[in-house]
Amino acid sequence: HTKIPDIAASNAKMIYDTNTDLARYEHIKKHVVVPLMLSIDGGHLTPTLTVKRRVVEKEYTALVESLYAD
User: Fold this and answer.
1) In the chain, count of helices (H) and strands (E)?
2) Predicted local distance difference test score (pLDDT) of residue 15
3) Which H helix or E strand runs over 24?
4) Using an 8 Å Cβ cutoff, are 32 and 4 in contact?
5) What does the alpha-carbon distance between residue 5 and residue 62 come to, in Å, rounded to a whole number?
6) 5: how many CB neighbours lie within 10 A of its CB?
7) Which residues contact 14 (CB under 8 A, 6 or more apart)?
8) I want to staple 44 with a disulfide (CB 3.0 to 4.6 A). Which of 11, 20, 38, 61 is the partner?
9) Are the beta carbons of 18 and 55 closer than 8 angstroms?
10) Tens digits of per-residue pLDDT, 6-61?
């Protein structure tokens, strides 16, 4: 997973650049890169490659909640 820091840094720059064009209340304040490829075999994607939101939400509930915690 050596590419994850590179991806996180790239995402952080993209978010920073995007936030400059947004009102303060619209800013992305926290984000996280999940070190997992979503797949059909893993149960995260349908055969048409759409995300199974309930499955992902259930699996990453604690992670999502940590983004909203102060």
Assistant:
1) 3, 0
2) 95
3) none
4) no
5) 21
6) 10
7) none
8) 38
9) no
10) 888 899 999 999 999 999 999 999 888 887 889 999 999 999 999 999 999 999 99
Partners of residue 51 on adjacent β-strands: 45
For tokens 């926290």, the residue is: 30
Structure-token match 């820091």, residue found: 5
Name the burial class of residue 33, with classes exposed (0-12), middle (13-18) and buried (19+) by CB atoms within 10 angstroms of its CB: middle
In this structure, what token pair is assigned to residue 6? Answer: 């590179």
Single-letter amino acid, residue 33: V
Distance from C-alpha of 46 to C-alpha of 3, rounded to nearest angstrom: 26
Two tokens, residue 8: 């996180």
